[in-house]
Automatic annotation (TrEMBL):
It comes from the Bacteria. Belongs to the 'phage' integrase family. It comes from Trichocoleus desertorum GB2-A4. InterPro entries: DNA_brk_join_enz, Integrase-like_cat_sf, Integrase_catalytic, Tyrosine_recombinase_XerCD. This is Tyrosine-type recombinase/integrase. Keywords: DNA recombination, DNA-binding. Residues 16-162 form the Tyr recombinase domain.
Length: 162
């Protein structure tokens, strides 16, 4: 095996000691996303849904308004990479954010759009999350898949009822 070159990607452990955010850091990230950029409601809502529903960045990009059932308080999640798709319940704060988001971006089929009305790209979400993480002064660099891991970390930390 040849030695790594300057352009090769190092293992994740080189960049950060963990691949998840505990709930208090997720909260700081959400608050920062809601305070920066030209689309704070969109950005905060996007990160909130990614965390609560364990969305991959590609799954978040594919969300459309016809998947949101406000009256039933749920959202249809289409999973990628062979995971099971399904319908998830929405929490009151998610519902409120989605109602406000719908008013702002009423002409779009995609749930999360850019300034031209096209769906957000994975790269745009990565940049937004990185900048939000910097504003939140988190102790490690963040990327979108960390929210999926954070969802799992949070679920594992819940007490088991017998």
């Amino acid at each position: 095996m040849s030695p790594p070159t300057e352009l090769s990607r190092q293992p994740n452990l080189t960049y950060r000691s963990r691949e998840y955010l505990p709930p208090r850091e997720v909260q700081r990230l959400l608050e920062a996303a809601g305070q920066r950029g030209r689309h704070p409601l969109r950005d905060r809502t996007l990160l909130l849904l990614m965390f609560r529903h364990g969305l991959r960045v590609g799954e978040a990009c594919l969300l459309k308004w016809d998947a949101v059932m406000l009256e039933e308080r749920c959202i249809a999640i289409t999973r990628l990479k062979g995971s099971n798709s399904g319908v998830h319940r929405l929490q009151p704060d998610e519902l409120e954010a989605l109602v406000l988001l719908r008013e702002l971006y009423s002409g779009s089929y995609a749930l999360f759009v850019n300034e031209r009305g096209a769906k957000l790209t994975t790269g745009a979400i990565s940049k937004m999350m990185k900048r939000s993480g910097e504003l939140a002064d988190l102790p490690l660099p963040v990327h979108p898949h960390m929210l999926r891991h954070s969802c799992g970390y949070f679920m594992d930390s819940l007490p088991i009822k017998s």
